[in-house]
Task: inverse folding
């Protein structure tokens, strides 16, 4: 594999690199119980700089680094001089001298890009306002394990179609040959100049009809309607997005074998009902587990000797 130096979005992958990474992640998943086999990060320190809350990303990265024999440093943004105004670029120039990779969760994607421009070690995006590539890698692994392939798979993304997850899904679908249908009201549809600029063999379709979006799809995907930073829009979002709730009625409009996905955390009763989230079609907990396996694969590919 030609190693992408940084993973800021899935646009940093070629089709072959994506395939290679998912194959390696599937192997790590199978071999997890063999704890001595994949100590690929011995002697390596990975810093995790987070300026937003996290359960899955934080814990799966830290557990994964431990399983690979490496050392993780969890650094709350406010515990660093970053919280007192030191720039991303100066922070990068210093951390370059100490550690082997950095995982960053921050607000503005531009801040991550600024860090990466000054980093001589791999930078991995753990979520920004634009993209969440580690989540998408886990989602693609989950689909590959379930369906045995990615190309030709149909996925409906319902809810906020202008969110970091929807944009990440658009990139992933084009790269992996997936037909992505984004079902969202006009106020929350993606910027078409972005989706149409993407290259790859997949297709991205945008519709305001949630039942049309899920017709014959293999997977229905959703995410919270009010992401961190959009709390002032709660009422508007709840009103406009309720027709896009993933509930039993929507599930009935899809194919009989449809599976349900959600990146979590979920707001039960808003974007998804509890009976669907906990129901027999849900593969949401496997999806959460797969964060661990794909991130181990990412770190091993980027950092191991
Ligand atoms: N899906 C996801 O990134 O979860 P966390 O915010 O808990 O890390």
Result:
């Amino acid at each position: 594999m030609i190693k992408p130096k940084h993973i800021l979005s899935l646009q940093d992958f070629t089709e072959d690199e994506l395939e290679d990474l998912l194959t390696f992640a599937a192997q790590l998943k199978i071999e997890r119980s063999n704890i001595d086999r994949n100590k690929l990060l011995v002697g390596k320190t990975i810093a995790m700089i987070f300026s937003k809350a996290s359960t899955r990303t934080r814990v799966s990265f830290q557990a994964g680094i431990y399983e690979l024999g490496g050392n993780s440093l969890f650094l709350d943004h406010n515990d660093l001089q970053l919280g007192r105004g030191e720039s991303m670029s100066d922070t990068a120039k210093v951390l370059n001298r100490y550690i082997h990779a950095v995982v960053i969760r921050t607000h503005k994607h531009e801040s991550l890009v600024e860090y990466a421009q000054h980093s001589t070690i791999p930078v991995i995006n753990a979520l920004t306002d634009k993209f969440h590539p580690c989540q998408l890698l886990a989602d693609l692994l989950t689909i590959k394990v379930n369906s045995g392939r990615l190309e030709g798979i149909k996925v409906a993304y319902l809810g906020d179609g202008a969110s970091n997850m929807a944009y990440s899904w658009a990139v992933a679908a084009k790269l992996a040959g997936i037909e992505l249908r984004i079902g969202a009201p006009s106020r929350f549809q993606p910027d078409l100049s972005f989706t149409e600029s993407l290259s790859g063999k997949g297709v991205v379709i945008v519709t305001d009809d949630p039942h049309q979006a899920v017709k014959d799809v293999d997977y229905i995907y959703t995410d919270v309607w009010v992401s961190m930073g959009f709390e002032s829009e709660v009422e508007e979002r709840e009103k406009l997005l309720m027709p896009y709730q993933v509930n039993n009625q929507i599930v009935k409009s899809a194919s009989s074998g449809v599976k349900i996905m959600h990146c979590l955390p979920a707001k039960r009763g808003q974007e998804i009902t509890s009976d669907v989230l906990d129901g027999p079609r849900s593969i949401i907990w496997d999806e959460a587990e797969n964060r661990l396996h794909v991130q181990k694969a990412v770190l091993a590919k980027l950092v191991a000797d």
Remarks:
- Residues 54-57, 127, 135, 263-265 surround phosphoric acid mono(formamide)ester (CB under 6 Å).
